[in-house]
Write a structure and sequence with these properties.
By secondary structure, the chain is mainly alpha-helical. It is built from 10 helices and 3 strands; from the N terminus they run ααααααββαβααα.
């Protein structure tokens, strides 16, 4: 009975997965700036390793796991599908998170946002300084590896701060739409800041690309 149900499920899913079978593989996005462009706040060695090694690994692993997952779907192999899901979450989240992170940074960044985003921050956190302090505190407080996020709740129409562990994607695990992510995995800062995460958090505010964060905020309000 179970095997017939699995085959039935597979027959239902496979036609809808035609586009997945012929999909283009995920690729490592180019950075919109040189590896050394964020110095002295984040040095070139960190950026090169972070982008060309760590992010690239998430992309390669995601492509490999998706191929295995598709094979399992076609075979109706639910056990393998379940076994692959943690890898999909980790590597898919790593690809999603870093693709946002690179655009959240800019050599022309820093300062404060303007317009509607700044007004929303003041409304939801009291002031920009209070928001900055809260996101910094949440990011420093992540135990082990993870991310600090500014997200938008469509349900409540408000900005929220959240922490995600490992490479858990913000929207996929909390429902919040990601606007600004701060990577607090040690590979994001250790070569420059050693184990002093607060110094890295202090520095990263100098390269936050508020134009990009604002674009994301305006887009999710539509």
């Amino acid at each position: 009975m179970l095997s017939r149900a699995a085959r039935s499920t597979s027959r239902t899913l496979v036609p809808a997965l035609g586009s997945l079978a012929s999909r283009q593989k995920h690729s490592l996005p180019d950075l919109p700036y040189d590896y050394g462009a964020l110095e002295p706040h984040i040095n070139a060695q960190i950026m090169q390793l972070h982008h060309s090694k760590h992010h690239a690994t998430y992309v390669n692993n995601l492509n490999a796991i998706e191929e295995k997952y598709l094979e399992a779907l076609e075979k109706g192999d639910i056990t393998t599908q379940v076994a692959l899901q943690p890898g999909l979450k980790f590597n898919g989240g790593g690809h999603i998170n870093h693709s946002i992170f690179w655009t959240n940074l800019s050599p022309k960044g820093g300062g404060e946002p303007k317009g509607e985003l700044l007004e929303a921050i003041k409304r939801d956190f009291g002031s920009f300084d209070k928001f900055k302090e809260k996101l910094t505190t949440v990011s420093i407080g992540v135990q082990g590896s993870g991310w600090g996020w500014l997200g938008f709740s469509k349900e409540q129409g408000r900005l929220q701060i959240a922490a995600c562990f490992n490479q858990d994607p913000l929207q996929g695990t909390t429902g919040l739409i990601p606007l600004l992510g701060i990577d607090v995995w040690e590979h994001a800062y250790y070569l420059q800041y050693k184990n002093v995460r607060p110094d890295y958090l202090k520095a990263i505010w100098n390269v936050i690309n508020w134009e990009n964060v604002t674009e994301r905020y305006m887009a999710c309000k539509k």
